[in-house]
Amino acid sequence: MGSSSLRVSRLAGLFTLAFVIIVAPFWLCSPLPLSDYPNHVARMYIIANLESSATLARYYSVKWEFIPNLAMDILVPPLARVTSAEFASLLFSAFSLFLLASGTIVLHRKLFGRWTLAPFLVFLLLYNRVFLWGFLNYLFSVGLALWMLAAHIHFRERGNVFRVLLFTLLSVVLLVSHLHAFASYAILVGCYEISIAWRHRHDAPWAKLLTAAAQFVFPAILFLTLSTSTTSATAVKWSSPMDKLYGLLDMVSNYSLPLDIATFLLFAAIAAIGVITRQLSIHRDMRLALIVLFVVYLCLPRMIFGSFGADRRLLVIVALAAVAALEVRIESARVRTVLAVGLAALFVGRMGVIGVNWIKAQQTYRPILAAIEQLPPGVRVAVISGSKLFPYLQNPPLEHVPNYGVISKNVYMNSLFAEPGKQVLHTVYGSSTTPFAADPSQTFRMDDSQIGKANPFPGVPWQRFDYFLLINPEFFVKDYGVDLTPVYRDGIAALFKVEHRQP
Questions:
Q1: Is this structure's pTM higher than 0.85?
Q2: Domain boundaries, given as residue ranges, for the chain
C-alpha cells in the first residue's frame, strides 16, 4: 500500500486475480439479482429482435432519439444478435465493472506518475448499492468518465485543436451514454483545471482552462436542443436528510448490515489516522473537484431528468475519484503488509457474502421463472408484486424478474420500462394513461400491518390481459374481482389465466 512503484507485470497479475474474484458471482444466479437488470435484458432482447418478430412488433416499438442514457441500448443489441440478450447483458455488466476498476487505477497512475497498490481499494467498492439497483448505464459511463479524465491529464500538453476535437467527440459519447456521468466528468475536469490555474495564477494559465472547457460546448448544445429528457422527464423529488445520511453507506452496502457498517467504520478510521499522521493525502489538484461533487450530492434531488437516486448514485464517482487521488506514504514495510493483507481478507470475505446471497437468490427466483414457462407465446401478462416498505431494495429484488417472460415467450408485460423520454423502447399496445399499460413497476410496498389487506386489483384493466402473475400473493386480499383460473402456484409465484366471459 506504500508509494513505491509496481512493475507492470505484477500489477496486471494482481488486477486479473481481483477481477476474476469480482465476476465469479456472475455465474451463480440468472438473472443477476440486480433490481433493474431483468428490465434491461428484456429491452435488449426486444431491440435486437423486433424487426424479425411480428409478435414483438404487435406490442413494442423502438424510437431512436437523443436520450442521454443509451450506453447499453447502443452496445448490447448488436452483440445479442450473435449470442443472446442475457449473455450480451452479462458481458456489458462485467465490462462496466472492468471500466470502473481499471479507470480508477489508470487515473491514479496519471495523477502521480507511478503504479501503486493504493487504487486497488476500488475492488472493495464495486459491489455497491448503485450496482445492486442495476444502474448499469450509469456505472458503465462512470468508468468511461474516469478513463476520460486520465486521458485529459495525459493529453493536457498536446496541441489545443487536437485536444478540443478529441475530447469533444469523447464528451458526446459520454453524454449519450449517461447525462449524470457527463455532468460529473465536466465538474472533475473543470475543478482540476481551476486548481492548477489558481496555483499558477501569476503565469496567465487561463488559456488551458478555456481549452478544457471547449469540449463541453457542442455536447451542451446537443442536449439542450435535441434531448427529450429536458421536457418529458421533468419530475423532481427530494431526499430527506436521513436518506442523505444513509447514502454515505452506499459504496459498501450490500447484504450484511453489520459487515457494511464495520467496513465503513474501518475505512473512516484508516482515513482519519492516515490524515492525522500525514501518511494519507488526496492529490492537491483533485481536492476541489471532490469537495464540489460532495456538495452537489448534498444539494441534488433524489429524482431529476427521470433518474431515480440521482443524488446517491453520484457518490460512486466521488468515491472512485477519491481512491484514484489517494496517495499513501507508509514507511514501515510491516504496517504496509498488515494493511494490505487485512484489506485483501476483507475483500475475499465480502465477496463470499455476495456469493452466498446470490446462490440464495437463484433459489428464490426459481418459482417465478417456472411460472413464466407456463405462459403461451405472445400473450398479455399483468404483474403485481408485493414487497415490504423497508428495506426498499429487497434481497433479492423480485419486481422485474417476470420481465424474463419477454425473452422466453415474447409476451407483453405491464412492468417493462418503456417510458417516453427515458427509453427508446415504447409500447404500441394499450394506453399510456392507464397505470397498467407501461409502468416501470407494479410493486406495492407496505408495512407489516398492511400485509394481506392491500387491494390494487380494482385498478387493473383485466380485459386487456390474458394472464395474471402475482408475486408474494400473501401480501394481497384474496378477492381479485375477476374470474381467474389457477395455472401454477409455487412459493412466492402464482399464475392465473384471465377468463374473458361474454356478458
A1: yes
A2: 8-41+69-353, 373-498
